[in-house]
Design goal:
By secondary structure, the protein is of the alpha/beta class. The chain has three domains: 85 residues, Arc Repressor Mutant, subunit A (Orthogonal Bundle); 222 residues, Type I PLP-dependent aspartate aminotransferase-like (Major domain) (Aspartate Aminotransferase, domain 2), CATH 3.40.640.10; 161 residues, Aspartate Aminotransferase, domain 1 (Alpha-Beta Complex). Helix content is 38%, strand content 14%. It has an eight-stranded mixed β-sheet, with helices on both faces. Strands 12-13-15 form a three-stranded antiparallel β-sheet, with no helix packed on it. It has a two-stranded antiparallel sheet with strand order 1-2. Helix 4 packs across helix 11, helix 6 packs across helix 10 and helix 12 runs parallel beside helix 14. The C terminus is likely disordered. The structure holds pyridoxal-5'-phosphate (PLP). The site of pyridoxal-5'-phosphate has 13 residues, from helix 6. Pyridoxal-5'-phosphate (PLP) binds next to helix 6.
């Protein structure tokens, strides 16, 4: 966007040397030409009014007007119909900071990107009310730097909220407000690195790319620890000699499993013996459908566990608000780290969040969204049953993503590519694995920001693609009668989930890739039932 100067030229744009012996008008013209040629002044930028510039530079207005007239004549500036004088398009060269923005990504008919809540339902009005109210009522002292750990009122309210809703054992003194979970994790790892931490474990599958990058930034090595259908493998963690581990116990990202009770105890035992730290990422625990919410691990061992929370799933990622509920012994170190990093998170936003929670608007929004995500989840389940009945879903009990287990022999990337060519965004489990292994082929289906109709459309396309991918009838029959897929139920990451097999004859009409032709084919599918995660 072109810059709209209302008065003075930016400092340093024009500097006149009165002792140089070069006429001031010539200097002024020359500096404008250079600024326009170099791109410091871009096409469409409005130059200051002659009165303002003359006053800022201590020149006569007539001299500035003469300069502008000369630059207009030379084609550097344009002035149409009495409107402000601007830099001419032809004269300006885009500087490095003015490059065209990258093209917007293609709009998809259905996008199953995960980790994004329903952005259309973000509580804009509540937030606007809360920010206005915070602005109106905050005492002047709240407009200063404040405590780097965060506004005390928000920390008190959050500590109460975490005790009530997440069964956490924390106080305001242990809460540090951060710019989302991303900053919280970086600060915790850095603080621990400062105390000698060399290696941190992270869940596999999980978020290997961001974990590795954050750990490297903090100066520690990140090592993957396998997750199975009971959560993180504590024996494997023990073998890594890590001094800390980052976990998602209430709803494992991305498999959706809950950390089993005996694993929780084993983990606490490991942390006690090793004097290790458990970093709990409690990212979407508010959205649990089939059972009561699983309490935060922190409540069991407040001295061993650092809990990280965020409003990125509950409200919107754009707010960049999160928190650390720290063991008392780390709270001071973390507050100092926050102070050095950015002197504290934006204060009015903190007050606004406090108001949302205090007035019940936050809970009301969560209730509304819980019902909406549960409805989307049902649409997803039904769409899969209709269009791809051989594709089981797991991890459905909470959050707004699930894992679709593609038939053995399917190539994850091919399905993703074929879907993209039909304007459907699918995402594979392989990117969540530390070794990027493409098998077993699975999709992580986010449905938080995917409308009901889009879910149906996208899953119909997936069903179509899988129909094409499956072998023709005779081979399919053989496949069904052949020995079971080698991945045994309930053993490790590669396990093919337990299933009750039932042969089913289904007619699908896949679209032949590229040709637009529709070819009816008969396939045999295997239906499967899974225990809810
Ligand atoms: C596992 C997990 N935890 C937490 C978050 C939230 O991070 P932030 O609070 O920085 O937005 C994400 C974001 O996608 C995530 O995938």
């Amino acid at each position: 966007m072109a810059v709209q100067w209302s008065g003075l030229a930016p400092e340093g744009l024009i500097t006149l040397d009165r002792g140089r012996g070069v006429p001031l008008r010539a200097q002024l013209e020359d500096q404008f030409r250079q600024a326009i040629r170099s791109g410091r002044l871009a096409a469409g930028d409005r130059v200051p009014s002659s009165r303002a510039l003359a006053s800022a530079l201590g020149l006569s207005r007539g001299l500035v007007q003469e300069c502008y007239a000369q630059l207009l004549a030379e084609g550097y500036l344009v002035s149409r119909g009495g409107s402000a004088t601007r830099v001419a398009t032809a004269a300006s060269r885009a500087g490095p900071a003015r490059q065209a923005p990258p093209p917007a990504p293609a709009r998809l008919a259905a996008d199953f990107a995960s980790g994004v809540p329903d952005l259309a339902s973000a509580p804009r009005q509540d937030w606007a009310w809360a920010v206005r109210e915070a602005c109106r009522t905050a005492p002047n002292t709240d407009l200063g730097y404040g405590d780097p750990a965060g506004n005390l009122r928000l920390r008190e309210i959050l500590a109460g909220y975490l005790r009530r809703v997440r069964a956490a054992d924390t106080t305001a003194g242990q809460v540090i407000i951060c710019s989302g979970m991303a900053q919280a994790l970086g600060l915790v790892l850095r603080a621990l690195a400062g105390q000698g931490l060399a290696r941190v474990g992270f869940e596999d599958p999980g978020a290997p790319a961001s974990m590795t990058a954050t750990a490297a930034w903090a100066g520690v090595e990140a090592v993957p620890v396998p997750v199975d259908d009971r959560g993180v493998d504590v024996a494997a963690l023990e073998a890594t000699s890590a001094g800390a581990v980052v976990l998602t116990p209430a709803h494992q990202w991305p498999t959706g499993v809950v950390l089993a009770a005996e694993r929780r105890l084993a983990l606490l035992d490991w942390a006690t013996r090793r004097k290790a730290v458990i970093i709990e990422d409690d990212y979407d625990a508010e959205f649990r459908y089939d059972r009561d919410p699983v309490g935060a691990l922190q409540g069991l061992a407040p001295d061993l566990v650092v809990t990280l929370g965020t409003v990125s799933k509950s409200l919107a990622p754009v707010l960049r608000l999160g928190w650390i509920a720290s063991p008392p012994r780390l709270a001071g170190t973390l507050a100092r780290a926050k102070q050095v990093t950015d002197r504290g998170s934006p204060g009015l936003d903190q007050l606004a969040l406090a108001l949302l929670i205090e007035t019940g608007r936050y809970d009301r929004h969560l209730r509304r969204m819980r019902a909406e995500y549960a409805a989307r989840r049902d649409v997803l389940v039904q769409a899969l049953a209709e269009h791809a009945p051989g594709v089981p879903l797991t991890g459905l009990a909470a959050g707004f993503h699930a894992v679709a287990h593609l038939p053995p022999g399917t190539t994850e990337q091919e399905v993703i590519r074929a879907a993209r060519s039909r304007s459907v965004g699918l995402y594979g489990m392989s990117t969540c694995r530390a070794d990027q292994a493409p098998s077993p082929p699975q999709l992580v289906l986010g449905f938080g920001n995917t409308r009901h109709q889009a879910i149906q459309t996208g899953i119909a396309v997936l069903g179509d693609i899988l129909g094409l991918a499956l072998p023709p009838r005779s081979e399919a029959l053989l496949a069904v009668q052949a020995p079971r897929h080698p991945g045994p139920a309930g053993r490790g990451r590669n396990a093919w989930p337990r299933r009750s097999r039932k042969r089913q004859r289904t007619s699908v009409t896949p679209v032949m890739a590229g040709s637009g032709r529709r070819a009816p084919v008969r396939i045999h599918t295997v239906t499967a039932t899974f225990p809810a995660a």
